[in-house]
């Protein structure tokens, strides 16, 4: 049938197959004053839906309510134990509070459980493990002796299963921190879950191991000692690991498996308060998050699949003295307890536990939707979904373009050309959405204004989100406001803008899928809802009725906006506290800016360009620019000072060091004392200078070329030692007691080209060794784990060994064997550094150190202790 346009008849190959009213297509844009209302709608959606649901926690159950709520987790009982533990203060490995006091407290609480145990149904075994071992982790050899774990095995008498569920948390802390959040809160949650299971009388198929490990912060020695040495370790077939990078709030499931999606099924079916995302797992694996958990040890040394959950709220107090009982709410304990109790019941009754390897069916994609429900599917399903919706979206875009061409009588080539141009503009918008926040981050770094949002996270809105939104829509808006819409109506141009963004996201989804990033699901969510809106618009022909199609698109963008804004809000709240410990060499604003950029693209790619439905869209961009300017002015005022006492502190760790440099003949060539600073963030020492006398503070980078380990007793990971700062003092540091290295023997081995040195070391529970063979010398063997020596191409001298002892303070005896090309061992062969770290709160600091520490401003926290360092040449 022929159709008419403006009174003219079209026939033959020019006939339109779709009859429309062109006046409806070419309707006027809406009045400009509706545009602010449109933008405020999305802002309001965030604060009305996303923010309250993100903060939502279940109401904590009190002991008085227990009779009315049988079988439910009782947060108040856990809270009472938490108070007892946190009152002990810091609990570091080797200190009496960690090795005796808290162990006795845990045993006493477990004995209370035994007294109410349904012994007609269950058997309970309790023991304290003392483990010693050595292993390689993150570039250092970790050697430990006598670290302790408190272990409970609870089983049903009727069960004959040899597959155990392992539940783990740790009770030790960082020096100076009471560790209420990390990780005493999880310890008391485990105790209450143990009690509830023990008194329930309900049978379960598989025994449960409750592992309260006493050396996670060292790092992760307690879990290594259990999984490599304990008689129950081989039977552990699934893991629930509980840790924290903050204090209070919800527990994020950020690692799973690997390759055991059945665990996600149990999480979905049982956890009443889901909070999880695959993207967090991939960020963690990429090293973006500066933390680690025992999950790594169980996975790598025990090959135990599991779920890794951690508290992520209020990371500002993490590893500080402000991680106290008061910051852990009753409701947050209830949230953790509800989830753990449900998971323990579910997995301890799982049929998959009989043969977990039979269910190792690949990785899983998983995420929660604003805490309301949990979604997971296998990686193979992810591949199918990503391909189907990506190519399906591209096909529907082509159909839509073809239909537009038939409606307007323009050739498909005309529309293809317009689409190609708008696709390039969409790509430019996406790039600018990331580039503008990164430029802001760079400019603020150049102006020494890093971390302005650290105490006032709302500044991120103006500093990074507004520039990102401007960048996202700027190319499209400029083009649409300066283009004459003669052949193609404005409403079609705007519709094609959405198509261009759709194809761009489809390409990104396909690229992420090809690179095996499971976070491609983020693009998939956006595609699914755009495709749904497009199908409705095609079927109803709303795109031929002015801007009515945009209403359908807006409605279908609410769900992806809510999810993406929720997800990136979570990441920003998690990562802002972490930026305070990224180190001095990294500009953390780059990460926050990039997060805001990517979040804006995912949340607003389809919604933001619709400001062009209204007249004068440039005014909206100007308004956003004005908001950005106002926030920039606020950020450079006192409001933008990063730190606040107690709540948002600067991390200014330092050691009070006494150093001795011994030469080959045993003489001391240099001896001095000073303060060795390891600063946590990009602002370095600048905020401290107005409060502390740092006049002679120097960077040790130059000494790193001439001195072993820069001449400092760097602790654990020493990769950032070239950024260390040294403040000399005239009076020697008084150490609580000496660290003593005894040279026992030197033996030239058969053949004459190898030599063996033997030593004995005594000192504090935390010590370090550093080895640097001289030219022509190779380190062949030593007492410690051989992994570093077996991979000389990867681990180059100086080699670091961390030594820790717990309850067993027996002197550490060790040997090293080396070879030398010329066989001459009557001259220097290798350098060895020895450090002693007096991290116990009971180790006395000298008067001058206390006086210096008192000048630390109230907005700063220092993890500090006395240390010794000796450099020997043998």
Summed up, what is this model?
This protein is α+β, with helices and mostly antiparallel strands and 874 residues long. It contains 20 helices and 24 strands. The chain has a 16-stranded mixed β-sheet that branches.
Describe the structure.
- By secondary structure, the chain is α+β, with helices and mostly antiparallel strands.
- It has three domains: 63-362, 3-Layer(aba) Sandwich (Aminopeptidase); 385-640, no CATH class; 650-873, no CATH class.
- Helices cover 39% and strands 21% of the residues.
- It is built from 20 helices and 24 strands.
- It has a 16-stranded mixed beta sheet that branches.
- A hairpin with a 2-residue loop joins strand 1 (4-5) and strand 2 (8-9).
- Helix 11 (379-408) packs antiparallel against helix 14 (490-514).
- The longest helix has 35 residues, at 412-446.
- The termini are far apart.
